[in-house]
Prior knowledge:
This protein is of the alpha/beta class.
Amino acid sequence: MSLNGKTAVITGSNSGIGLGVARELAKAGANVVLNSFTDRDEDHALAAEIATEFGVEARYIKADMSKGDECRALIEKAGVCDILVNNAGIQNVDPIDTFPTEKWDAIIAINMNSAFHTTAAALPLMRAAGWGRVVNIASAHGLTASPFKSAYVAAKHGVVGMTKVVALETAEEPITANAVCPGYVLTPLVEAQIPDTMKEYDMDRETVVRDVLLARQPSKEFATVEQLGGTCIFLCSDAAAQITGTTISVDGGWTAL
Length: 257
């Protein structure tokens, strides 16, 4: 499943799932464009490390995914976008009646609206190239719900719906659009939360992971960023040319319940 010669733009990719996906795509031969809202030396160093490790071209482009014009500018600055991975996202947990309005607006903008803007800008480039893949990193929360996550659940459901629309609009072209729906993924952010959760519940690490963090994940194992990257590679391969407008759950059975 070689992606040699393809260029992938991955939003929100200087850490966590986005970085993991970018690394896997680069390992498969794709040139990659990393992105986040910061513009630090270490952001550009990440791109340089990927380029050296995998022998591909890698760049970092700053763009704030809460701003539509910057989302579109990211694609314009990339210049080429054969593969678009919409990954950028944030979270906030509050009851809906006390959910901060500014948090709602930010989550909808970054988790959902950004995917609209980047896709709108990328499709003309894909059409000009005669090939394209849109992979939206949604969530198990794009298919089901949890209390206190109204904005996140609404945004991820929206991403799944928009994925289907893009697939229908490109159905007769060599372009596909699909959504990957992870459950809990072991990222540095999640790893950092485990010690505090252990203290809060007065539990050991294994019990916290199994009975608290993975309470809704029947496999009782985290998904990994490498597995998500592998799923993206498959969706970009010729084997998945007739897979479009659907969701692939990487959630240890969460949405089977």
